[in-house]
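Example record for the data management plan.
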Amino acid sequence: MTKLIIDSIQNPRYQSAFERYNVGQMYNKRQSIVGKYMLADWLRVTPAKVADGSLFESGPHGKPRLKSGASEYNIANSYDKVVLAISDQPVGVDLEKLRPYDYHRIHRAFRSEELAYLAQLTGEQQIWATFKIWTIKEAVLKLVGMGIPGGIRSMQIDLTTFAHANRYGQSIRLEPLYVGTDYVGTIAQFEN
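Corresponding structural encoding:
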């Protein structure tokens, strides 16, 4: 079972930390602080304990994990939202805010069948589907612990349901992640 904790960089709780660390309006630094606080709350430790790194180790491809091995986790963020996914099995999560995108940029990351699928859509449907496919790709690569360098085009996605993917013969279950109408996200876990 996967538990999700969702928060926002707008939460007043974090504003003093943003000032203390002098991060200004930089989203990535604000998101990182919120993620550390979320991990600290879940682990019942201080944010400083999370920041010192002593609770974590790197997996074979660099994905951080708890030294205790008690649970698996993954963090995703986009604009003002941060998501912490916690599970008893490996998990990958990704989140994207819906926005205009550069169609030429996705050609390098998307497979021919994905581009053909997107070419059939227009307007908001095409934007949603593009970011849905992107979040699937990122969530799967985060699941396997490799990130984008692990082969953004290495998986086949069920484009009719967005519920399954296959990467090098390994079946992956995909679940939607809902954090609001202007975001799209995906949770990825290995099929049992």
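Summary line stored alongside the record: The chain has a mean pLDDT of 93.
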